[in-house]
Amino acid sequence: MARGPELIGAPTRGTTNPNRLRRVDRWLVADPGVRRALSASDDPLVVDLGYGASPVTTVELARRLTLLRRDVRVLGLELDADRVAAGRAVADPPRLDFGRGGFELAGTRPAVVRAFNVLRQYDEADVAPSWRAMLTRLAPDGVLVEGTCDELGRLCCWVTLTRQGPRTLTLSCRPDTLDRPSTLAQRLPKALIHRNVPGEPIHALLSAVDHWWAVAAPYTVFGARARWAETVRLLAGQGWRVLGHPDRRRLGELTVAWDTVARDTTAA
């Protein structure tokens, strides 16, 4: 019997909650790059890497992605056999399935990979090799989304990558829960979280967002989302490379080009 690929990675803590990843899922459904990757694929496979002790967020991902393609397939991967068994208990193949796998993606070649709250538990030096392992397995026009969020999914940050390396950083939050936007620093991806110190681009970005959040305080009368949208508008007006459709701002999102927040943009 042929052996599968060697599993690459270490078990995660596995904590999760229903709707914890709703923000990134909502972004995946709307993002032009993700939409292109899935629409162009003959096999629209999405891998959810490291879904945790409960398969609930993988089940939610499969349901949400049917808005893009009814024939999309979602494969949840975990290193722990008990977690895989829990997933298979609710699986609905071929649309939704579960298996053992790590950064080698179980030998698959997916159009999209979602890897959330996985690398947070690794050392910073492990980020580039882990990205590289996943990117080499992506479909040619595939997309990797790697990030971190809090337990309730109200504070989220993620990097979007292609085979050519990291492309964007997205900050996503519930603005009405913020004292100031730099609260998101605690959920930066592992590639950036230790770089949030004076002199680093990510620190400059978060400081700028805090400043314009304070300037936009009068918009609070229209609600926290309006204040966030005005904050991002002011930020963009100062030359920051803000990307994405302006409508996304009212959802508590800010997406910037990766090379504006990271000195080293190599991932592969």
Structure described in brief:
This protein is of the alpha/beta class. It has helices spanning 22-30, 32-39, 56-65, 81-88, 127-135, 190-193, 201-215, 224-237; strands spanning 45-49, 73-78, 96-100, 112-116, 143-149, 155-162, 165-173, 242-243, 253-257. The chain has two domains: 1-163, Vaccinia Virus protein VP39 (Rossmann fold), CATH 3.40.50; 172-260, no CATH class.
Largest sheet: 9 strands, mixed
In angstroms, what separates the terminal alpha carbons? 33 Å
Radius of gyration: 18 Å
Number of domains: 2
Count the beta strands.
9
Class by SSE composition: alpha/beta
Question: How would you name the CATH homologous superfamily of the largest domain?
Answer: Vaccinia Virus protein VP39
Instruction: Determine the mean pLDDT.
Output: 94
Assembly annotation: single chain
DSSP strand content: 15-25%
CATH A-level architecture of the largest domain: 3-Layer(aba) Sandwich
Order of helix and strand elements from N to C terminus: HHEHEHEEHEEEHHHEE
CATH-derived topology of the largest domain: Rossmann fold
Count of helix runs? 8
CATH C-level label of the largest domain? Alpha Beta
